[in-house]
């Protein structure tokens, strides 16, 4: 399944401190232009921390220091000249908790485009429909686009959140445990959505579910104690890992 | 068994205390309403006050109260909103922020008569604004600002952080997140806070006695040019409000139907404040439904 494709994001020697405590100890990791990379590892291994460094979400917190190089399509993510607002339009993010805004479904999905200055009703209608279709929720909500997104189920809200991110046409999609707050059926729907998107987007997903990583990802990276232990084709990581820690984690001996 | 008995006694005592609080409020309201309601009439609500003979009304005072309230809110709301947004969305812990917060707390416990005397010395005397609606509105702003700021800040802080992250992750700047996500989501509770503070401002007397003044010159309700002193809209005319009127006639009124006027005016004041309080939550809920289409 892995195709040779260009690298969209290169990170090297990524270190991160919460105050004086070093949480990431120098991560080197690259991501291809298309397909899903899963970040797995026990709680506290630094996988979410690493993910949130990629679109500078740590900027919202005090006391966090990030160093290392981040090359996103030739752009240095942490350069002083980088506009985080611009950056986050290109690197979209979906969170653990579905977090639709308290507006209608339509307004949620059209939100990013409207902010970007799109006013044409037809363009918006088309983008909303396409995004909701891409997030596999169009059929469920097409007759209720003007209803509040808060009235949807958790799984539906999460897919609307994905549609909202897709509407702004990001190059890279970060997913921080997008199914861990959902019931199994909804989680399954989200996985299907991601599988359909993987030919068009680069996606990085943090997940606690090994079966999820094995089902949907092309590559898997195993994190432990703030280090990247091993990265490679998902098949290889799950069947024939190189490191003993990886094998132990995969076979459920800890974590 | 012993623990159970103790629990029963404690529960009873706590109920009793809560009931006595409610009783004091209800008794007071009933007293004011029973005394005041018989004197209410359209004439009483609209006619001008009379100083020496019976049959006067509270029309001008009532209008003044509302006009002052609106002006005070027009001045204090934008300032309070800005301060609250800064404190809740932007401020990072620092000495400056500690000073601002302490200042707000001290301001909110200032006795209103002190605010009134300060307003008198600064605005009425020093800035030559005289006893005027404008002086009164500024005094009311000082009186209202800390409470309103705190109430808006609480409204903002109730919006979960997820919404801020969602905004940021969509490529919104902090300001855009505040304007497009946080404020719309908190409008209902902000409105509730504003209306409740309006009730407090409406009934305020001490801050106005030496700023908006204790006289209610006759108004010409056909003249809406704010630059004419006889116009109801003029911010430069003295304006006795309802609450000040009640204080005034009880301390130095000489009209024969003094107690009737006082009782009637008190009833009107209480009814308006109650209306503010009851409508606050309904208005907030209504707005929330409207904004979220739920």
UniProtKB/TrEMBL annotation, chain A:
Keywords: ATP-binding, Hydrolase, Nucleotide-binding, Phosphate transport, Transport
Top-level class of the enzyme under EC nomenclature: hydrolase
Presence of the UniProt keyword Lipid biosynthesis in the record: no
EC number: 3.6.3.27
SMART domains: AAA
Molecular function terms from GO: hydrolase activity
Segments forming domain ABC transporter: 9-250
Origin: domain of life: Bacteria
InterPro entries hit by this protein: AAA+_ATPase (IPR003593), ABC_transporter-like_ATP-bd (IPR003439), ABC_transporter-like_CS (IPR017871), P-loop_NTPase (IPR027417), PstB-like (IPR005670)
Pfam families: ABC_tran
UniProt-recorded name of the protein: ATPase component (PstB)
From TrEMBL, chain B:
PANTHER family: ABC TRANSPORTER PERMEASE PROTEIN YQGI-RELATED, PHOSPHATE TRANSPORT SYSTEM PERMEASE PROTEIN PSTA-RELATED
NCBIfam families from the UniProt entry: 3a0107s02c
CDD domains: TM_PBP2
UniProt keyword Transmembrane, yes or no: yes
One Pfam family recorded for the sequence: BPD_transp_1
SUPFAM superfamilies: MetI-like (SSF161098)
InterPro entries: MetI-like, MetI-like_sf, Phosphate_PstA
Domain (ABC transmembrane type-1) ranges: 62-280
Organism of origin: Fructobacillus fructosus
Keyword check for Cytoplasm: no
Protein name: Phosphate transport system permease protein PstA
Keywords recorded for this protein, A-Z: Cell membrane, Membrane, Transmembrane, Transmembrane helix, Transport
Lineage, opening ranks: Bacteria, Bacillati, Bacillota, Bacilli, Lactobacillales
Similarity-based family: Belongs to the binding-protein-dependent transport system permease family. CysTW subfamily.
UniProt topology in membrane: Multi-pass membrane protein
Record localization: Cell membrane
Signal peptide: none
Transmembrane intervals: 12-34, 66-87, 99-123, 129-148, 258-280
